[in-house]
Write a structure and sequence with these properties.
The chain is α/β, with parallel strands linked by helices and 408 residues long. Helices cover 37% and strands 26% of the residues. It has 12 helices and 20 strands. The protein has helices spanning 14-25, 51-56, 98-112, 159-163, 228-238, 242-246, 291-310, 316-346, 349-362, 364-367, 377-384, 388-406, and strands at residues 2-4, 7-10, 30-33, 48-50, 67-71, 73-77, 83-87, 93-96, 115-117, 121-128, 131-138, 142-146, 149-152, 174-183, 192-196, 207-213, 216-223, 250-260, 269-270, 273-275. Bound molecules: flavin-adenine dinucleotide. Flavin-adenine dinucleotide is lined by residues 10-16, 33-36, 44-49, 121-122, 153-155, 157, 160, 177-179, 220, 257, 259, 277-278, 283, 288-292, 294.
């Protein structure tokens, strides 16, 4: 069997569906292949998103019960449990039900004219004369989906990406994440997200508690080494602060997935092929958040691909403007975040304790209480540098890092 559309999209996650929506709005004919039978299921994500960025994408307020909670505070705990409370003048972030969020974007795309094939796994790219021209996919039997271009939004697995001759995100930069939905959580403030640093429970990343209200929360962590399931149990049962909140909590669901922290892959396009979202590692290296950057890149990808279709030119050279445009948007912030990630990875728990202690002493929270932007962290940092308190705490981070590098 054969099907034809202008563009075949692999993956009905947020980046695939948002690309689809933007393409059909530009009168491009789109088919989305999603391997699961239901959009947004299973959901591996905590769905913690910046309200400002959602507004900039035209997505806020969101309908129905997609938004589960909003936050105007955060507590950061150092490895030994020193608390850095942050309070903002207005809600800065929200947590969304990722299944409903993904469904919402897919519905927008479908209503606008995108065609969805659920339970359909893309297995192999079809090439003709050095150009990607479609996909062999499997539902009950193998089907060819032919098109003028393929947009790959398959997430971190990046299996299809390799077939296009592109280098996948570096495995060495992955952390292994777990997110659990839990109930019967105690001693949490509903408008405050909690972040726990330290190698003992989340080596190479951090752990989180994101309240949903009525004693429910999303609890999770990422880790570079070790078993995330066992680390989650240890975090809930043994962490000196988190265990007081979570010891009696019941896990309702938990799911495991990788997060790529190495920054965007060096090349995201080839003849007739373009990749977006986690597949291209368009993820914040500091926090592992990938939804907002992925959606921003999906807007650019859809614009470039629609122009390629209209100009009848899907060459790598034409599609390369996608890479140039998203690098212009994210490049500076990515560079800064990659540096921050490197510093954090090198810092011992003792140094992190000292850093949090210093931030407390300097009342850094006052310098960032009007914070709105949390995604483009390079620019946020530049703004925050107007405050001597932030300069002092960052200088400390830098000195700690340099000492670690030259071992003095
Ligand atoms: C534990 C954890 C917590 C996280 N928390 C946050 C958070 O709080 N905030 C945030 O911004 N980000 C978070 N992230 C990251 C976020 O989940 C991703 O950045 C985001 O989902 C990327 O969207 P995507 O569309 O690129 O990929 P995905 O959401 O992974 O979607 C890819 C889709 O492609 C489908 N697919 C894959 N291969 C094929 C194939 N061959 N054929 C057909 N379909 C295929 C998959 O089934 C899936 O539906 C978290 C990640 C993890 C692991």
């Amino acid at each position: 069997m054969e099907n034809f559309s202008d563009v075949i999209i692999i993956g009905g996650g947020p980046c695939g569906s948002y690309s689809a929506w933007n393409l059909v709005k530009k009168s491009v004919n789109v088919t989305v292949l999603e391997e699961h039978n239901e959009i947004g299921v299973p959901c591996h994500c905590a769905g913690h998103l910046s309200i400002n960025s959602l507004k900039n994408l035209g997505f806020y307020p969101l309908p129905g019960k997609i938004v589960e909670n909003v936050f105007s505070g955060a507590k950061i705990y150092s490895p030994s449990g020193i608390e850095l409370p942050l309070r903002f003048t207005a809600p800065v972030t929200c947590t969304v039900n990722r299944s409903l969020f993904d469904k919402h974007i897919a519905q927008l795309a479908e209503k606008a004219g995108a065609h969805y094939c659920l339970g359909t796994r893309a297995e192999m790219l079809i090439t003709d004369n050095g150009y990607v021209k479609g996909v062999v996919a499997k539902r009950n039997h193998k089907t060819k989906f032919l098109g003028k271009a393929v947009l790959d939004a398959e997430g971190t697995a990046s299996k299809i990406l390799r077939q296009a001759g592109l280098a996948p995100p570096a495995k060495g930069k992955f952390v292994y994440g777990v997110n659990a939905e839990v109930e019967n959580v105690k001693d949490i403030e509903n408008d405050t997200v909690e972040v726990f640093l330290g190698r003992k429970y989340a080596p190479g990343f951090y752990a989180w508690i994101i309240p949903k209200g009525q004693g429910q929360a999303k609890v999770g962590l990422g880790t570079k080494t070790g078993n995330p399931k066992m680390l989650l149990q240890k975090f809930m049962q043994k962490h000196p602060i988190a265990s007081r909140k979570l010891q009696e909590a019941k896990i309702l669901r938990e799911i495991y997935h990788t997060i790529s922290l190495g920054g965007p892959i060096p090349e995201t396009y080839s003849n007739g092929f373009i990749t977006v979202g986690d597949a291209a590692s368009q993820v914040k290296p500091t926090t592992g958040g990938g939804v907002i950057f992925g959606l921003n890149c999906a807007t650019i990808a859809a614009d470039v691909v629609s122009k390629a279709i209209k100009n009848n030119n899907t060459s790598a050279q034409f599609l390369s403007t996608y890479q140039q445009r998203f690098t212009k948007l994210l490049g500076f912030d990515m560079k800064i975040m990659l540096k921050i990630r490197r510093v954090l990875d090198k810092m011992s728990d003792e140094k992190l304790d000292e850093f949090v202690r210093l931030c407390r002493k300097l009342h850094v929270e006052n310098a960032i209480k009007n914070l709105e932007e949390i995604d483009f962290q390079g620019k946020t940092l530049l703004n925050a540098l107007q405050s001597p308190k932030t300069i002092a705490s960052l200088a400390y981070l830098l000195i700690a890092y340099l000492k670690q590098q030259v071992k003095i």
